[in-house]
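Researcher: First entry.
Model:
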Amino acid sequence: MTPLTPTPYVPRLSGPAARVVTASTLGFTMMFAVWVMFAIIGLPMRKQFHLSDAQFTLLSALPVLTGSLLRLPGGILADRFGGKRPFMILLVLAALASLAVAYAPSYGLLLWLAPLVGLAGVSFAVGSSWIAQWVDGGNRGLALGTFGAGNAGASITKLLAPLLIAALPATAAGAFIPGGWRVVPFVFAGLLLLSALFTLLYTPGDSDKTRAPRPLSEWLSPLKSVQVWRFGLYYVVFFGAYVALSLFLPKYYVDHDKVPLAEAGLLTALFIFPASLLRPLGGYLSDRFGARGTTVAAFGLMILALIPLALNAAYALTPFLLLTLLLGVGMGIGKASTYKLVSNHFPSEMGAVGGLVGLLGGLGGFFLPLIFSYVKTHSGVVQAAPAVLLPLTVLALAVFVPSMLSVRRRELNAPVTPAGLATD
């Protein structure tokens, strides 16, 4: 494993840059909450619309698919025109989609609205590019990690949604404010509009950060690099698996451990908190000690958790929680270090390259729940988390081992710099 050699680090941000980081983080937190809200409100939906496991999984995964596929064009637009305007547009569109969900009368209409809700997921590529335009390289890892901690929006959904559903049941709904599960997207729509207003008033304009027009081929040229696709595979493991487990765990706790929806949300939040809130730490470690070694260490933590999870089919609740907590620590650090690697190697194409990396990670978040559902159905072990997590373990090892060998080769071949600094 590569040694963590300190590099120069400057922790302060300028006023405009700090405002961009603050507003983008708050907005991304709310959009991420909306992006994964079907994982919670889908459970009462399942009863109301009599959904099968496959129908429930499809509804939960569709927003992830849309938000993933559009990250690349969203990042390119932010690179070209600046991040503020695209970010605000996404806030408003996500609010309108969420409001429509609150009044949707059927499962069929929800399937049409779910991809529109997925526009919230594009905010990560747009926000990453926006931050890269305002924050210099020495602080960028921490800034991107702080922004990425908006993944904690998933915990807002897991904790707040059951409370809202309990506080305003469907029988207590008013003429305009819906009750039951519908109150959740209704409240989220209002919070998204407030976030858009805050972004409009609080952040600096993009006029001095826009770039001269270039042919599309130039914007896309970095995508020919094998390294970009390697970073994308990293993000499938760190972020795609995070999204997949955020969608999978509430239903697992309800069905397997027979806990109420509110408790299932709380237990899932114990995984989400480290996987989200440790992103700033991952960014700081990457700035301070090098992104590549930090990434390998994050992989190692995930493997330590995944192997026992995948091999034991009868875990009690407490050890299962502790292992998913460790899994979340590795994911939180690795998500930030991956984007620090992107910013180190492609600082001028953060939107395009970061958009592709985010796209691949998001696609992992779409396909992994479908794989989980298939494996659970055909494994012969009812509600077995280990059977579900085995494919994820294999994937993590397949990405981790070549990465570790690559770092080792770089160590052996790298020239010694006069200052002894890490060269990611």
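Researcher: Second entry.
Model:
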Amino acid sequence: MTADQVSALGLPPDVALAPKANLAICETLQQQIAILKKRLAECVKLRADYRLLKTVPGIGETLATVIMLETRTVKRFAGVGQFSSYCRCVYSVRQSNGRKKGEGNTRNGNAYLASAFIEAANFALRQCPSAQRFYERKQRATNRIVALKTVAHKLARACYYMLRDQQPFDVTRCFA
């Protein structure tokens, strides 16, 4: 909305001040975000991993930059399980005979990668029909938070294999 559209609503002058103030704050924040993005683009040296990560549905410029910088090189992980664990995409529960015996350190790993993959999962659900079908199937079996975390885990695994093999994203391999 613009200030003119708020005025056209016909609100009393005192009530119209609140939306106009919110609009002014949003415009200022958008300007500051643009300045930060420009500075980030100047400072960061993008690698080939960046272009690969942008092929994943739900991962745009900002998330690709975060994942690229926080992962550094994928060769430092012995396998996909270690990468998923570092991204906090798997639960740390010890079980024996189907019973919970304890939990590991749930704060181990990289919080920035965890939030990046959760955000990527949310965007992927909007953009990718295969991801949405997978999410709905998981949501029928569990709750929505676990289903979303499962989509984030799938994306993290896909990113590991993409970066390791230097191959673009393949939706059929990820959500089949």
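Model: Note on the second entry: The chain has two domains: 3-43, 48-175.
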